[in-house]
Amino acid sequence: AARGAPGMDTRLDQETARWLRWDKNPLTLESAKQLIKDGNKEELQKCFGARMEFGTAGLRAAMGTGIARMNDLTIIQTTQGFCRYLEKQFSDLKQRGVVISFDARAHPPSGGNSKRFARLAATTFITQGIPVYLFSGITPTPFVPYTVLHLKLCAGIMITASHNPKQDNGYKVYWDNGAQITSPHDKAISQAIEENLEPWPQAWDDSLINGSPLLHDPSASINESYFEDLKKYCFHRSVNRETKVKFVHTSVHGVGHEFVQSAFKAFGFAPPEAVPEQKNPDPEFPTVKYPNPEEGKGVLTLSFALADKTKAKIILANDPDADRLAVAEKQDSGEWRVFSGNELGALLGWWLFTSWKEKNPDHSALKDLYMLSSTVSSKILRAIALKEGFHFEETLTGFKWMGNRAKQLIDQGKNVLFAFEEAIGYMCCPFVLDKDGVSAAVIIAELASFLATKNLSLSQQLKAIYVEYGYHITKASYFICHDQGTIKKLFENLRNYDGKNNYPKTCGRFEISGIRDLTTGYDDSQPDKKAVLPTSKSSQMITFTFANGGVATMRTSGTEPKIKYYSELCAPPGNSDPEQLKKELNELVSAIEEHFFQPQKYNLQPKA
């Protein structure tokens, strides 16, 4: 048989030989043996060619055999590395310990499931004399960062792949400040994993944790304290008790059902109607193509049907690990309107500020009030902050940045009221320094109930916000591209648009007034032309500001083979014509697709 590069083959042979020595899971071991026996080079390369990369979001990959997949052995190896790194960082690790939780994902062919992965991770820590707070049942992802802060632990691990396809799983890590890790922790943890690949003597024996004095189950106490803390964000309990607004909730076969029921109870609401086919956790996600409420109407089909049947006006949809929230509202026309993440960010930001203002009529507290959003999200909070006198800051994309920044501000005595990102992620209560779809769901329910007493819908209130603070119209999409080389070429072309190392000055008929490149660290709006936000050479991200008030960002995705774009047109306050703005934005987006993406030239696949 023709063999590939000799170096590659010996590396594959070494990896598979180690695997056969170390793997004690009969299913993944058998699967590896079969691949070797069949000489299935392509599949061996996929499973054993390169170890999953441990990034700031931890790990995310398909479940199955090999170092490139999520399985018992890679969970043990990852946790051994993480454990050694934590021992170096925290002298009191053995006093404080870590929290571990999990979602309901499972992959019968490889015997992998989130609960088993969580138990193996717990075993690793406990054999080293480190206390572990392991939830006994599934929880939403935000319960892990909540527990880290509440019990003052050194770290948290959540086993989840959020809204990824059913074969995937993940390993998400929180630091002792209750936020996701940032660089250089990820590099250092990767290094520690490489130095601790061989399973420790008791690594596979998860039965030893059962009677261990180091194992604690925080489920009951955390459930109680989380919902107690949540009650502080309930401003209109009597309205909630009396409301005629009906809600439908779906947890999309994930973990959210009982937690959202509890949140409604904490706010004095009757429970929302749950979509029966989707309320129980099911790792097969049988009723949806993708378990991702960001995909909009496809995931909500059963919710629309139940809402129409029960005459419910509002649909609340969590993703499978309940850290995100999508919302739809029945319009007078009978149509359902699914709000974008930016529109919900506007509604929640306005509501949290309005409720805060009612409790704090004294304006002097405004100087310590902050809201955050990511740089690819709508700038609506900036407009509200300018007019109302509080602070707004933008961070890089992703909640790890907003969580860490929020913690810095809180430690300086500031009050962080709200943070959001357009990917339907909201931090409404700073006792969780990450996105939380449980708190967001019940806060939206209270907002809708309060507005109903004034005969207003969410849509009408959104319009009122835009009239008061200026219309912010957004449009985002992506192209699929599996070739890293092509992506690099496309972005390099934008940096050298005229052949003389200059960025473009126009895009079709639209004049460009500013450019920020967070890959290279260039920002022409700064006096020294240096970007203020952190830069990253490993990912592509360029933001164009246009003379017509438009802003567009093109960036690569950290978790998917996509080049994404986010565009927004901001108008000043007053009654502008939203239809005209939409038309202008659509034309701008078409120009960006045609001139900057050049899908024909680069053979890009548009969003389906």
Automatic annotation (TrEMBL):
Pfam families: PGM_PMM_I, PGM_PMM_II, PGM_PMM_III. GO terms for biological process: glucose metabolic process; purine ribonucleoside salvage. It is found in: Cytoplasm, Cytosol. GO terms for cellular component: cytosol; nucleus. Gene3D superfamilies: Alpha-D-Glucose-1,6-Bisphosphate, subunit A, domain 3. Residues 52-197, 225-330, 341-468 form the Alpha-D-phosphohexomutase alpha/beta/alpha domain. Its cofactor is Mg(2+). GO terms for molecular function: magnesium ion binding; phosphopentomutase activity. InterPro entries: A-D-PHexomutase_a/b/a-I, A-D-PHexomutase_a/b/a-I/II/III, A-D-PHexomutase_a/b/a-II, A-D-PHexomutase_a/b/a-III, A-D-PHexomutase_C_sf, A-D-PHexomutase_CS, Alpha-D-phosphohexomutase_SF. It comes from Mustela putorius furo (European domestic ferret). Keywords: Carbohydrate metabolism, Cytoplasm, Glucose metabolism, Isomerase, Magnesium, Metal-binding, Phosphoprotein. This is Phosphoglucomutase 2. Belongs to the phosphohexose mutase family.
